[in-house]
Prior knowledge:
The chain is of the alpha+beta class. It folds into 2 domains: 6-63, no CATH class; 78-192, no CATH class. Helix content is 22%, strand content 25%. The protein has a 3-stranded antiparallel β-sheet, with helices on one face. It has a 3-stranded antiparallel β-sheet with strand order 4-5-8, with no helix packed on it. The chain has a 3-stranded antiparallel β-sheet with strand order 7-6-9, with no helix packed on it. The two termini are 39 Å apart.
Amino acid sequence: METRTMSDASKIDDGGAASGLTPIETTWKADKTYYRYTCVKCGGEGRNTYCEPSYTQMMERRLCWDCNYWVEEEKRYEKEHRTMTIIDGHVYGPGSRTSGSMRGMAGRRFDIEYIEPSVYAGQRVTTFDLWSGSTMPDHLRERFPDTARFLGGAERAQVGETTCWNPSDHKSKPYPLPNTLKPNASKSEAHHG
């Protein structure tokens, strides 16, 4: 399959039809041409109507938004997996804020224990600022296993089409905040060496 770059696509006289590109007429002022095309990975419709770098990545790869997103996330996971917070295949960002109105999960308490292969394995934290990321597709879950687990009854739950989180109970004293995490010596050396 021939691959064309964005600059090649913009030079096509037939409006991109020969390469599977269909120009999209925009209702907003645009200094570039947007295209509709078939995603080479999933077969769904792709539209590169996003800002950079997604605009160019999607065109060069001929991927839809979702497929392009997961290509980029996979690259990030390859570098950061062992330092990330992944519970049941879902990526989280535990913050250390304990007050204020802009806290993840409305400031509710979540106790987390890090497990192998995390560089923090064996350490426990309490966060009142938990942010939800993405649920990994199965092919990435196989490559990048969980690095943590909830404690104290906390869980992610599905109620119909709605995902919600039940916080940890308050039966135990809080653990240190996430900003106190330190890589375990052997894990840190293996990660950086």
